[in-house]
Design brief:
The structure is a single chain. With 117 residues, this protein is mostly beta strands. It is built from no helices and 11 strands.
Length: 117
């Protein structure tokens, strides 16, 4: 099993920046991809960004391209999400995920991000 713990959520104003972190523990050798998803009230969970073990192929949802940056520190088993130019529509619970071959097997408990207008 892999355990994921997110941190860094909070309440910010539109245009502000926020950084999320996700630390992994357990059988992390079984995973080669980590990412972020989000779920807004009344909506389905959606993909935000993901990064492979090498860090060479980050992927982003169109809605966050150019504003969000995903990165990882393999030595610390941590993935980060830097969110800039935040918009009210970015308000959601953000979940860290990990898996293998782009299949998501493990999920964190989520951290709330609220962007006020």
């Amino acid at each position: 099993q892999v355990q994921l713990v997110e941190s860094g959520g909070g309440l910010v104003q539109a245009g502000d920046s926020l950084s999320l972190s996700c630390g992994a523990s357990g059988r992390t050798f079984s995973t080669d991809v980590m990412g972020w998803f989000r779920q807004a009230p009344g909506k389905e969970r959606e993909f935000v960004a993901a990064i492979s073990l090498s860090g060479s192929t980050p992927n982003y949802a169109d809605s966050v391209k150019g504003r969000f940056t995903i990165s990882r520190d393999n030595a610390k088993k941590t993935v980060f999400l830097q969110m800039n130019s935040l918009k009210p529509e970015d308000t959601a619970v953000y979940y860290c995920a990990a898996g293998s071959k782009w299949n998501w097997d493990y999920w964190g408990q989520g951290t709330q991000v609220t962007v006020s207008s």
